[in-house]
């Protein structure tokens, strides 16, 4: 073979000479788990020839990118099945999403659960035909001819030049570069049996999808996510490399449904969402109030110990405050509309004294700035750490409001720290350690960090200030030893932030605490302190929310613990169950001792039979059940029953009380 017939590639880090025109499929033919190639950083179909000098990696089906390709390919198979079942269905978009995929369709009637079962059978038939996914590059005219019966695809072709701005999922179809169509090709005849406008890449063939997929649900969806557009029908699905992986996912989803905080909140009588109040405005019942108070009380004490000072601010303010802060310029869509009040009218209706716009506050920082500015400040007071459980209100769109985790009225555990530039790095480090330690106390201990940087279209201040703030936050985050993930453009308009991403018991990630470094609001509010040399200087401002919101944090904890809160948070920590009515008084004496020690305890003296009382305590997820009968009463003892069903008999009452007190005090159960 001559050199002219060869090219050099870097394959998985090693140099290799291959024949000109070699494809990824030929390069990785011995690796059956490789489904797509990463060529110079871009994912390419395996049937594409590899260029001279390319760096090539094999992407396996179980890798994140491989899973995305698998799921996007499965979406195509689903769409093919839909158009077989309903020939008049018009195609929308069909991207992969976390753990799955969806495809939108314009159809005369919504899909039913029976339709989804039928479609799964049709998909399996297509998969077993081992159709090939074949990419072809086309001109815009050729694409329009191929998609002439697909009005939504034709609309996408018109958006190609601004695909990134056009709406939800457009890049999946017509991003930058060539226009491509993917054909599903019958292996026997070589004919295209279905096609779609798509950027790809895709699996080499449908057989790789195997039987490890499922259609999960259908719903209405607006074209390109815009409520002003046509309403379509969306089918969601999931796909995995193996049946075992699919089964594990389905079990996780079932467990997540069992842990849904809205369901548990009703079952355990913790909170509710009355229609009479409006969307996103929860109320906490007595038991939920106990949990919330325990969460807040512990947080308050930790803040006192860490040198924070408590402040309180009102729920509404004149609009001018948010003009100064910049929120009315950059955040108005997230605020409730203004209340125009205090206008005075003459008898003829003309305005004698104009009114003013008041707003429900969406955040506390501008008011905390007013507290700082209320008098002269000295460097000796810094760092000044102001803390508030402040009620704020945000106009979340009705489609995104969700239980306690996305509400319109919330209580933020909000802190703002004012310090010198020399203090800021140490203060950020101390704040991050404080945040992580407190989250661990509530039972969350698996973290990574995310660094949100400037949104080039939505910021105040100069580039140099942003660069300094971003660099400082990055150094603090990296020094923590935790993984740091970039979030380009995700910062608030006034400064970059670190967010703590915590994993719950199911491995799901939740954004928890945020720490933002802000040089801009002190400037806008003209905050000053007198430095040691007598000059007036601007403080640096650190915004910090630990829970994010008390409501959201409680929703997360409810799901994390599946409603079985640790004893220190549980609304009822102990239930005493006498085996017969004759031992009621004895059990009341035991419970009185627990109450005297600060334990939330009660006696079940209902008319239910003893086994039913035990089941009720288990259903209510009570941490400790104390049981007493004749032998226990004679010995001055109780039987300890735990959540897992195990039991410790004949425990002296004093020892039982001490065990429970220790468990609550040490947050060990």
Automatic annotation (TrEMBL):
Similarity comment text for this entry: Belongs to the class-II aminoacyl-tRNA synthetase family.
Subcellular location: Cytoplasm
Single annotated GO MF: ATP binding
GO biological process, one term: threonyl-tRNA aminoacylation
Gene for this chain: thrS
Cofactor(s) required for function per UniProt: Zn(2+)
Details of cofactor binding: Binds 1 zinc ion per subunit.
SUPFAM superfamilies named in the record: Class II aaRS ABD-related, Class II aaRS and biotin synthetases, ThrRS/AlaRS common domain
Keyword Transcription regulation included in the entry's annotation: no
Protein name in UniProt: Threonine--tRNA ligase
Subunit record text: Homodimer.
Domain TGS positions: 3-60
One Gene Ontology cellular component: cytoplasm
Domain Aminoacyl-transfer RNA synthetases class-II family profile: 291-566
Organism: Arthrobacter sp. K5
Catalytic activity field: tRNA(Thr) + L-threonine + ATP = L-threonyl-tRNA(Thr) + AMP + diphosphate + H(+)
Binding site for Zn(2+): 365, 416, 543
Taxonomic superkingdom: Bacteria
HAMAP family: Thr_tRNA_synth
């Amino acid at each position: 073979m001559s050199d002219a017939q060869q090219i050099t590639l870097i394959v998985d880090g090693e140099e290799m000479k291959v024949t000109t025109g070699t494809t990824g499929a030929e390069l990785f033919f011995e690796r059956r788990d490789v489904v797509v190639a990463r060529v110079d950083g871009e994912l390419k179909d395996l049937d594409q020839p590899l260029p001279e000098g390319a760096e090539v990696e094999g992407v396996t089906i179980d890798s994140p990118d491989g899973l995305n390709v698998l799921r996007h390919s499965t979406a195509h198979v689903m769409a093919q099945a839909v158009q077989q079942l309903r020939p008049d269905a018009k195609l929308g978009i069909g991207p992969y999403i976390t753990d799955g995929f969806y495809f939108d369709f314009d159809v005369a009637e919504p899909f039913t659960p029976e339709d989804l079962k039928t479609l799964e059978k049709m998909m399996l038939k297509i998969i077993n035909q081992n159709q090939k996914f074949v990419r072809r590059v086309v001109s815009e005219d050729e694409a329009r001819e191929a998609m002439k019966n697909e009005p939504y695809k034709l609309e996408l072709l018109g958006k190609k030049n601004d695909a990134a701005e056009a709406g939800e999922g457009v890049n999946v179809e017509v991003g930058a570069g060539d226009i491509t169509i993917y054909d599903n090709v019958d292996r026997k005849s070589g004919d295209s049996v279905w096609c779609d406008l798509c950027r790809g890449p895709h699996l080499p063939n449908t057989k790789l999808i195997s039987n490890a997929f499922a259609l999960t649900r259908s719903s209405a969806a607006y074209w390109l996510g815009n409520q002003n557009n046509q309403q379509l029908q969306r089918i969601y699905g999931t796909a995995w490399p193996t049946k075992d992986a699919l089964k594990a996912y389905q079990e996780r989803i079932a467990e997540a449904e069992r842990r849904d905080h809205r369901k548990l909140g009703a079952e355990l009588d913790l909170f509710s969402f009355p229609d009479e109040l409006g969307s996103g405005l929860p109320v906490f019942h007595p038991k939920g109030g106990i949990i919330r108070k325990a969460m807040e009380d512990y947080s308050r004490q930790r803040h006192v110990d860490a040198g924070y000072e408590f402040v309180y601010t009102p729920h509404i303010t004149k609009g001018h405050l948010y003009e100064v802060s910049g929120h009315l310029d950059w955040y108005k869509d997230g605020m409730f509309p203004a209340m125009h009040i205090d206008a005075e009218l003459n008898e003829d209706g003309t305005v004698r004294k104009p009114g003013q716009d008041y707003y429900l506050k969406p955040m506390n920082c501008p008011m905390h700035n007013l507290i700082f500015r209320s008098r002269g400040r000295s460097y000796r007071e810094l760092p000044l750490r102001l803390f508030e459980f402040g009620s704020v209100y945000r106009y979340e769109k009705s489609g995104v409001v969700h239980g306690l985790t996305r509400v319109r009225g919330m209580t933020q555990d909000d802190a703002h720290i004012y310090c010198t530039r020399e203090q800021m790095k140490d203060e950020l480090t101390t704040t991050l350690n404080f945040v992580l330690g407190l989250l661990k106390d509530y039972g969350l201990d698996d973290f990574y960090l995310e660094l949100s940087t400037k949104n080039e279209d939505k910021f105040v201040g100069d580039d140099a200030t942003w660069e300094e703030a971003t660099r400082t936050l990055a150094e603090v985050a990296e020094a923590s030893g935790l993984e740091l993930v970039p979030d380009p453009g995700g910062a608030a308009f006034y400064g970059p932030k670190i967010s703590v991403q915590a994993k719950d018991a199911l491995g799901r990630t939740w954004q928890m605490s945020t720490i933002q470094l802000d040089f801009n609001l002190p400037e806008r509010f003209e905050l000053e302190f007198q430095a040691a040399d007598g000059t007036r200087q601007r403080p640096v401002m650190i915004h910090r929310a630990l829970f994010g919101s008390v409501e959201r944090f409680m929703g997360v904890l409810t799901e994390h613990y599946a409603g079985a809160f640790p004893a220190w948070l549980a609304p009822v920590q102990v239930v005493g169950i006498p085996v017969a009515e004759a031992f009621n008084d004895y059990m009341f004496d035991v419970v009185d001792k627990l109450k005297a020690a600060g334990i939330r305890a009660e006696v079940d003296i209902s008319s239910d039979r003893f086994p039913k009382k035990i089941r009720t305590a288990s259903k209510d997820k009570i941490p400790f059940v104390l049981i007493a009968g004749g032998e226990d009463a004679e010995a001055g003892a109780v039987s300890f029953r735990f959540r897992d069903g195990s039991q410790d008999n004949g425990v002296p009452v004093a020892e039982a009380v001490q065990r429970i007190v220790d468990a609550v005090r040490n947050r060990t159960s």
